[in-house]
Every structure is written in structure tokens, then in C-alpha cells.
Write a structure and sequence with these properties.
The chain is an alpha/beta fold. It is built from 16 helices and eleven strands. Strands 4-3-2-1-5-6-7 form a seven-stranded parallel sheet, with helices on both faces. Helix 5 links the parallel strand 5 and strand 6. Bound molecules: nicotinamide-adenine-dinucleotide (NAD) and magnesium ion. The site of magnesium ion has 4 residues, from helix 7.
Length: 382
């Protein structure tokens, strides 16, 4: 029996994880749940999964939630940053699924590591912001960071049974998002609604916009650098519109290992929570005869400058990836709030990065300062 803390329980990853718990009650027990919002859903999750404690965004939401609970399960209710940290470090938890969105994941990730809890990591922003610090601390505390992002799960699975020193190249696949075939001239007309319609995956709003700008692949490039200790130059991004090959690993002898499956995050979440076992997931295989061909091509970095911005952040290292991440979060929110257009997202990130004097080897407070500086800068540019 594994005891779970699920941070971001009401989101796309969180609800998929709870679907897996529901399918395998003999394997998993939920100890803590957290959410920022959607209290009605959190209430139903509390009744069904009976956690010991829950954490929500603020004191107001904590009071509201307490008033909504009618069933016999009455978990401790805490709130705010300290509440999320408590949920991540909960004593009886074995593994923390980090599935909140954005920079809010960083402090709970560090708290889980300090409490020697393994992490199933969906929240890629944590490694983009502070990958050196997080990975070093995980090594020091002998904590496993298990990838949940489908591409990184694929890479992880394609390395299993091989020797890391034989890895020469990673092929990071991307669906290309909803604007894969949209000409650059039409980008100015792209609306919030167009950008939220992902062709293959159903996800939260922020990552859906990141997928539309291809910044999601930029964030994943940096995530892979940290998870697999590889230089960004040895990671090739490939547009693969069918989203069947979730990523590949090339070895020194020219052999390439790929992991495939239908595009459903449950596979990667379940593997991180149950490895080395594989769980029955009622999932079917890709219908290869019907799909007929799997295609790959290079991304168009003129239409989608995000990948180049992420590579620039990799080259400068230090505080630059945190600055890129923060500028992206602010720009995506401004686009979602209809305060600016789609192409402005690229402009704001690029201009914020250009204004930043990169700090080498920042400590945690240096990272947080850079994050806050970038948020203020991006807001002022907007
Ligand atoms: P989502 O928006 O659907 O859910 C986010 C969850 O985090 C919700 O429970 C929300 O209440 C909570 N939350 C939001 N803001 C918060 C804050 N400031 N503090 C604490 N909690 C907060 O997001 P998602 O699509 O499930 O993605 C979650 C993370 O997983 C992201 O980092 C994303 O990049 C990553 N990821 C998602 C997918 C996917 O298919 N959805 C795939 C790979 C990686
Ligand atoms: Mg992914």
C-alpha cells in the first residue's frame, strides 16, 4: 500500500491520479489533498478518498470548505504556502504527486525532499526555476524524482535497463499544438478560445497555452536537462503530430528506444506511482493499422520562438531559466485575461529575458528574487 499526497488534486493531472487510485484501492491510500480552487470538487474528493488533511489557497477558502463538509470525513484544513508545504511533508505519506501549476510547486517540492518523500513530478516549472538546487537536494536526501510529464516518463522508461553513460541523444517529441499548420500572418488573430483547443491532450489552461506557443516544449527541454543530466544541445525537439511516440532515447551504438501509447496522462502518472509494476488501466493500444504512419519533423522556430528562448536560457543558466518561466507565467495569464494578443507572449518573454542580468549559481533566495523581478518586469512591459 502506498500513501499519497496529491498536490493540485482538482486539476487535470490531480483528477487523473485520483481515477487511478479509484481503480486500484488495494494499492493506494490518499493522505493529503490540496487545491487552490474548485471547492465543490475538493469536497467530493474528501468524501470519497478520506484524506487526513487538505490545504487550500487562503483562510477564506479554508473557512468556506469547512462549512461545506457534511459527511463523516473531517480532515484538518490548512491553507496558503505553509499549508501546501505541510501537505507535501505529511508524515505518513510515501510519495508526493506534485501537480499544482506554476511556480507554486517549488517550495512544496523542497519540503517533500527535506522530509525524504519521493516525488512524482508533473510540475515542470519547479525544475525550470531551480533544477540545480532541487536535483542536488534530492540526491543529498536520496529522494527519487519520478517524471510524470509524458515525454520525460517516456525517456525514463526508454533508459530503464540501459546504462545512462551510453545515452547520446534525447528526441523530445511535441504534438505541435493547435497552430502547427497556422501561417504566421494569422497568429495576430488567435483568440483565447482557439489557443485552449489542444488537438490531442486535455489539460489545464496554463499548459494548454504553453502547448500552443510551444513554450511547453521549451520548459520540457530544461526539465529534461535536469532530470537526465544532459546538455540541451543533445536534445532534439521533433514535431510528431500523432502524439503516439512520447519521446525517444538514442544510444552510442546508434540504437534508438521509444516509448509509445495512446495520448492519456494516466499511463505516465500510474507508472510514476507504481513503478516498477505496471497497472491495469483499461487503456487500449494505439490503433497502428488505422494510424498507418507516424511522422516527425523539425519545429518552425520562426513561427514559434519559444524553443530558442529556452535554449538561450540553457546557455546562460543561473537565474535566466527562472526569469523565462516567470515572464511566461505572467504573459500567459495576461493572454488568458484578454489583456494582450497571442504573439505578445513571445515578445514579453523575450524582452524580459533581454533586460535581465543573469546571476550565476543563484541560491534559493536568488532564484525567488529573479522570479519576482521577472514578474514585475513582464507586468510593466505588458
Ligand atoms: P490544472 O490547471 O488543471 O490544475 C492545477 C491544480 O493546481 C488545481 O488543483 C489548482 O487548484 C491548483 N493550483 C492552481 N494554482 C495554484 C497555486 N497558486 N497554489 C497551489 N495550487 C494551485 O493544471 P494541470 O494541467 O493539471 O497541470 C498541473 C501541472 O502538471 C503543471 O505544472 C503542468 O505543466 C504539468 N503537466 C500537466 C499535464 C497535463 O496533461 N495536464 C501534462 C504534463 C505536465
Ligand atoms: Mg509533456
Amino acid at each position: 500500500m502506498k500513501h499519497l499526497s496529491i498536490l493540485g488534486a482538482t486539476g487535470s493531472i490531480g483528477t487523473s491520479a485520483l481515477d487511478i487510485v479509484r481503480m486500484h484501492p488495494d494499492r493506494f491510500q490518499v493522505k493529503t489533498l490540496t487545491a487552490a480552487n474548485n471547492l465543490p470538487l475538493l469536497c467530493r474528493q474528501i468524501a470519497e478518498f478520506t484524506p487526513d488533511m487538505v490545504a487550500v489557497l487562503d483562510a477564506g477558502k479554508a473557512r468556506e470548505l469547512a462549512g461545506m463538509l457534511t459527511g463523516p470525513c473531517r480532515p484538518d484544513i490548512v491553507f496558503g504556502d505553509s499549508g501546501y508545504v505541510q501537505a507535501a511533508a505529511w508524515d505518513s505519506t510515501d510519495i508526493v504527486l506534485l501537480a499544482m501549476v506554476g511556480s507554486a510547486g517549488l517550495m512544496p517540492a523542497l519540503a517533500a525532499i527535506d522530509a525524504k518523500k519521493d516525488i512524482a513530478l508533473a510540475n515542470k516549472e519547479t525544475l525550470v526555476m531551480a533544477g540545480d538546487i532541487v536535483m542536488a537536494r534530492a540526491r543529498e536526501k536520496k529522494v527519487s524524482i519520478l517524471p510524470v510529464d509524458s515525454e520525460h516518463s517516456a525517456i525514463f522508461q526508454s533508459i530503464m535497463g540501459n546504462q545512462v553513460r551510453d545515452v547520446k541523444q534525447i528526441f523530445l517529441t511535441a504534438s505541435g499544438g493547435p497552430f502547427r499548420n497556422t501561417p504566421k500572418e494569422a497568429f495576430a488573430e488567435i483568440t483565447r478560445e482557439d489557443a485552449l483547443k489542444h488537438p490531442n491532450w486535455s489539460m489545464g489552461d496554463k499548459i494548454s497555452i504553453d502547448s500552443a506557443t510551444l513554450m511547453n516544449k521549451g520548459l520540457e527541454l530544461i526539465e529534461a536537462v535536469h532530470l537526465f543530466d544532459i546538455c540541451h544541445e543533445n536534445i532534439q525537439v521533433l514535431i510528431h503530430p500523432q502524439s503516439i511516440v512520447h519521446s525517444m532515447v538514442g544510444y552510442r551504438d546508434g540504437s534508438v528506444m521509444a516509448q509509445m501509447g495512446v495520448p492519456d496522462m494516466k499511463q505516465a502518472i500510474a507508472f510514476a506511482l507504481s513503478l516498477p509494476d505496471r497497472l491495469d488501466l483499461d487503456m487500449g493500444f494505439p490503433d497502428f493499422a488505422q494510424i498507418q504512419s507516424l511522422t516527425f519533423h523539425a519545429p518552425d522556430t520562426l513561427r514559434f520562438p519559444s524553443l530558442e528562448l529556452a535554449r538561450e536560457a540553457c546557455r546562460q543558466k543561473g537565474s535566466m531559466p527562472a526569469v523565462m518561466n516567470a515572464a511566461n507565467e505572467v504573459a500567459v495569464q495576461a493572454f488568458l485575461d484578454r489583456r494582450m494578443g497571442f504573439v505578445d507572449i513571445f515578445r514579453i518573454i523575450s524582452a524580459t529575458m533581454a533586460c535581465h542580468t543573469c546571476i550565476d549559481n543563484p541560491d534559493l533566495s536568488g532564484i525567488i528574487e529573479a522570479d519576482q523581478w521577472a514578474r514585475a518586469k513582464a507586468e510593466s512591459l505588458i
